[in-house]
Amino acid sequence: MLAIVAAALFFIAFLIDAADISTNHVFTQTNIMLIGLTLLALHLAGVGSGWAARGRRR
Q1: Exposure letters 41-56 (e unless 16+ CB within 10 A, then b)
Q2: Domain span including residue 28
Q3: How many domains does the structure of the chain reveal?
Q4: Of 2, 10, 29, 31, which sits 20 to 30 A from 21 (CA to CA)?
Q5: On the CB side of 25, how many CA atoms lie within 13 Å of its CA?
Q6: Is it the case that residue 52 has pLDDT exceeding 80?
């Protein structure tokens, strides 16, 4: 799920760059891309995967 959100943020950052849209200082292309990279790193680290490694159930 985090990877899908990261991909959407990368696409938004690409649209901001490609269309040359001016935004305020918070929603710049670089900030959106960094948020996407953070979400992608969390996805690769296993955060939010839904799998619990607590042990086997019998």
Answers
A1: ebbeeeeeeeeeeeee
A2: 2-45
A3: 1
A4: 2
A5: 0
A6: no
